[in-house]
């Protein structure tokens, strides 16, 4: 048995025809998927605003809780991790709350948002690494993330919860770094004027 192949002559399509077909298909894709592509430009700035404000509140809370502690407790909180020399732990203990408060203020007003979020993400990675280090070395300390810090009883450590919490904060910082455009931000005036 033989197979017969029929040849059909077809007129060549111009590039204008192809462009029209592609444009029509793209328009159909947007209208066929309600809410998916069409709403992203509207939804993304609001999601970034929520992430920006949430991370600002967390950093402000953590920074203020540490800032209001006596200086020796700020230093003790950092020294408890046994990662930095004594001469460095003091300035870090005093400077960390100020850095957190500054990052919180920048995020809250939406100034240098991408850069501020990236620095916040790096800070969260440092916090996560420090907690993992303390846990793996068998230290029994309070993280000092929201004030306090120092030695605690063995049953009072909450390393896993602290790591998971900081991963959540890291996710907020990464979101803002990737999609920094948000509502009610100074960056809108300084960078995104139309």
UniProtKB/TrEMBL annotation:
<keyword id="KW-1133">Transmembrane helix</keyword>
<feature type="transmembrane region" description="Helical">
    <location>
        <begin position="46"/>
        <end position="64"/>
    </location>
</feature>
<dbReference type="InterPro" id="IPR009908">
    <property type="entry name" value="Methylamine_util_MauE"/>
</dbReference>
<dbReference type="GO" id="GO:0016020">
    <property type="term" value="C:membrane"/>
</dbReference>
<keyword id="KW-0472">Membrane</keyword>
<keyword id="KW-0812">Transmembrane</keyword>
<feature type="domain" description="Methylamine utilisation protein MauE">
    <location>
        <begin position="45"/>
        <end position="177"/>
    </location>
</feature>
<dbReference type="Pfam" id="PF07291">
    <property type="entry name" value="MauE"/>
</dbReference>
<protein>
    <submittedName>
        <fullName>DoxX family protein</fullName>
    </submittedName>
</protein>
<feature type="transmembrane region" description="Helical">
    <location>
        <begin position="84"/>
        <end position="108"/>
    </location>
</feature>
<feature type="transmembrane region" description="Helical">
    <location>
        <begin position="115"/>
        <end position="135"/>
    </location>
</feature>
<dbReference type="GO" id="GO:0030416">
    <property type="term" value="P:methylamine metabolic process"/>
</dbReference>
